[in-house]
Design brief:
With 506 residues, the protein is of the alpha+beta class. The chain is built from 15 helices and 16 strands. A three-stranded antiparallel sheet has the order 2-1-3. A three-stranded antiparallel sheet has the order 4-6-7, with no helix packed on it. It is globular and about 80 Å long.
Length: 506
């Protein structure tokens, strides 16, 4: 028996909220026993939620050996809880779920060492893989913990940090020598960095996992090989650099960093303050089947990254648009909205669609964000509902354009003639950003009414016009003091936005 042990099958580490709002910390075994009684995961960091969800999905896929067909998925869904296959799987691979195992530590690389020029071990602080802290070249994001002010994590906190780092570590310079991988100049982005992750949320954790549990075969949702397996089942150390995944389970559990946790005892308690780390595997050539996809002006599909100034709901047309020829919605959305799927099981009328993403610039984290939309099932399956959404979003864009042009009109009149910073001053007013911020609440109402298209569009149109006028007034009259010049400019801008909005009515 080793000095340190923390087996995820038995020890509580998964944060959950039950249906009464109570907080629970569950082991893997208990999580799958009580998943139908848990409302949701309750991770403080949304990136940890997304990373943990992928690990849990991989466990379910492997335990049930599928689902390979829609009927297999139906059988799982109709049970309303996980069966003995999950506990049997965890028992079979129990020795691979101990994070401090000296033989096969969970999601880590046995024998990994960062070494100096003398060949001596130089462990790194665990803050180096925590995006919310400042360490090395990383800028502080939410707190002021630094490599010079280290922290100690409990084993439960350490495993959540480990899983999150495997999926959301940022690329950048490394310049470290390691055993057994030698000198490494830099890191690559982890698998979940370069896009916006989307998933469906059900009434329980059981239902949420089933809604995102994809039916897969040799080619879907990505090409699969006979060697495909979760990373904890592999017997090799794993490689470094860009490569092709062995299949969907390998993709879900990509070891993007070689890491080893260094446990120690602090006042009788096991804690983790240090790690060793090296570049792991990356899959840049594989489109993520759970990412938002958009089409560029040149007609090419791509995964947009999170924009700190743009909420994801503004891309709802890309998110929900049905295309029978080239459907690029997240594959869970396609699966749930598929007519044959709806024919074999009675699905709820509404779902929560959640997005989680990390914004970054030059290997520095800027923000992470979690957004949720309450969407009707028809938005995943009915062309008329999608068409109503498209009309609504087109109206919203026209409203934003009316605000933009009217602010420019004000600045053109208010600023000295031949002023060269009209556009800059117009953008600095913040009117367009305020318009989109205010429209978010109206959009949630629009989604609730979407199955009554005429009512939804009428109320939405009224909201667009009212919000456009209010945004213009607030950002102009509140920023520029009353004067004859500003009053004249405001009058022209107000008249102009009314003209533009009346053209929308026509």
């Amino acid at each position: 028996m080793t000095e340190f042990s923390f087996n995820l099958v038995d020890e509580p580490w998964i944060p959950c909220t039950d249906h009464e709002g109570g907080k629970r910390l569950l082991s893997l075994h208990d999580f799958f026993i009580y998943a139908h009684e848990m409302r949701s995961l309750s991770c403080q960091n949304p990136l940890a939620e997304a990373a943990l969800l992928r690990v849990l999905l991989a466990v379910v896929h492997r335990a049930v050996n599928g689902p390979k067909k829609r009927d297999d998925w139906k059988e799982l869904y109709l049970k309303k809880h996980f069966d003995e296959r999950l506990t049997e799987y965890l028992e079979k691979w129990r020795n691979r779920f101990d994070i401090f195992s000296t033989d096969k530590p969970f999601y880590q690389t046995k024998g990994l060492l960062v070494i100096n020029e003398k060949g001596e071990p130089v462990p790194q602080y665990i803050t180096s893989i925590m995006l919310g802290t400042s360490s090395g070249n990383n800028k502080t994001l939410f707190d002021h913990t630094t490599a010079n002010l280290p922290i100690r994590l409990t084993p439960a906190e350490a495993v959540m940090t480990l899983i999150t780092a495997q999926m959301y570590s940022l690329g950048g310079l490394n310049r470290k020598t390691t055993k057994p991988f030698g000198y490494q100049q830099s890191f690559l982005n982890a698998v979940m960095v370069s896009g916006i992750f989307l998933f469906l949320v059900g009434e329980s954790m059981f239902e949420s996992l089933l809604l995102n549990l994809l039916v897969y075969d040799d080619v879907e949702p990505i090409p699969n090989t006979p060697d495909d397996a979760p990373v904890w089942e592999r017997s090799d150390l794993g490689g470094t650099g860009a490569k092709e995944p062995k299949g969907y389970l390998d993709f879900l559990t990509c070891k993007c960093r070689h890491i080893i946790l260094v446990p120690e005892r602090t006042n009788g308690m096991v804690t983790v303050e240090h790690i060793h780390i090296a570049q792991g595997e990356a899959f840049p050539s594989i489109p993520n089947p759970s990412f938002l996809s958009k089409k560029s002006k040149e007609g090419n599909w791509y995964h947009p990254q999170l924009d700190v100034d743009r909420l994801v709901w503004r891309d709802s047309v890309s998110l929900f648009s049905l295309d029978e020829v080239d459907d690029r919605r997240p594959k869970a959305f396609r699966q749930v909205g598929n007519a044959s799927m709806r024919a074999i099981v009675n699905l709820p009328r509404r779902y929560n669609c959640t997005s989680i993403a990390l914004a970054n610039d030059k290997a520095n984290p800027l923000a992470w964000r979690r957004e949720s939309l309450n969407v009707p099932l028809s938005l995943l399956s009915d062309k008329e509902t999608v068409a109503t959404l498209k009309v609504g979003m087109s109206l919203a864009e026209e409203g934003a354009d009316a605000v933009r042009k009217s602010v420019f009109k004000f600045m053109l009149e208010f600023l000295p003639k031949k002023s060269k910073d009209v556009g800059e001053k117009a953008a600095a007013s913040g009117a367009v950003q305020r318009y989109w911020d205010m429209m978010e609440g109206h959009f949630h109402r629009f989604l609730l009414d979407l199955e009554e298209p005429e009512k939804a569009l009428m109320m939405w149109f009224v909201s667009v016009k009212r919000t456009a006028r209010e945004s213009l007034k607030t950002c102009i009259t509140g920023r520029y003091r009353d004067s004859a010049r500003s009053y004249q400019a405001w009058t022209l801008a107000e008249d102009y936005i009314n003209v533009l909005l009346s053209k929308m009515t026509k």
